[in-house]
Amino acid sequence: MAIRPPLPPGLENYGCVSCHAEVSAEWAASAHGLAWVDEQFKAQLAEKKRPELCYGCHAPEPLLAGELSPRPDVRNGGRELGVHCESCHQDESGAMLGPRGTSVSAHPSKLSEHLRAPGSDALCSACHATNIGPVIGIAKDFASANMAARGLSCVGCHMAEVERSWASDAPARSGRSHSLQTPRDPAFLRLAFGFEHRVQDGKSVVALKNQAGHRVPGLVGRVLTLRAELLDAAGVQLERQQLAFDEKTYLPVDGTREIRFTRAGARVRLSGVHKDPRAAEPIPFLDETLAAQ
Known about the structure:
Blueprint (H helix, E strand, L loop, with lengths): L20 H8 L10 H7 L6 H7 L26 H5 L6 E3 L10 E3 L8 H9 L9 H7 L9 H5 L2 E4 L8 E4 L9 H5 L2 E8 L2 E8 L12 E9 L5 E9 L10 E5 L6 E9 L7 E9 L2
């Protein structure tokens, strides 16, 4: 089950909700919506000598109201709404920006290339290329591996395509979920890894490949533990191995690791748990069995 902290306060008075109820509900339960009120964020701030250095990315002024900056300014009001709609969708004139620029009656609208993949990567990187406290600037990995040239984007992985009407006076069309998929969702975390079981020189080997566009994990305090059980044709356990990834032993972008057994087996049963700083107990995200190729 995905980790779902309480919603940010003040939603009932937030103007965007009345027309964009579905999008707002997704955003409000996301890491963006909870960026200012997250308990782990507040606990980390209490330990910082200069906590104000964190404010700009957790309650930023509109990022597209000027040149994109690697250190966004914090807004004065409504900080409890975290990275809210205006943070990514408002320009210097007050117009709302989108990937199409469709005209609506509620407000001026404009098209922005920063909200169309792969141009959106620069917008995401304004905060996610920063190393500060427990945050690892994983957008730097994405850029250094030239993921955009492969047709990949931050939005492409973290904001799933959906079909819906974005406003009360707009027709249904393809858009992006604002739930912001992250490792808090076990099913999404599973997608970070590719696995292969082969027999080499009479011994079973499981290869793990990083399928994310950045290192795994991408947060200090996050630990991913993978267990591999070698089984014979009857399902009897022959051997067991374990790997753990954290901020020091992370799996680099495009990186691979191998689990090598001392003998060959018919199958390997894989399981994985995610220790997240927000969760009281490790959360399972992997339970699969691989036949030898």
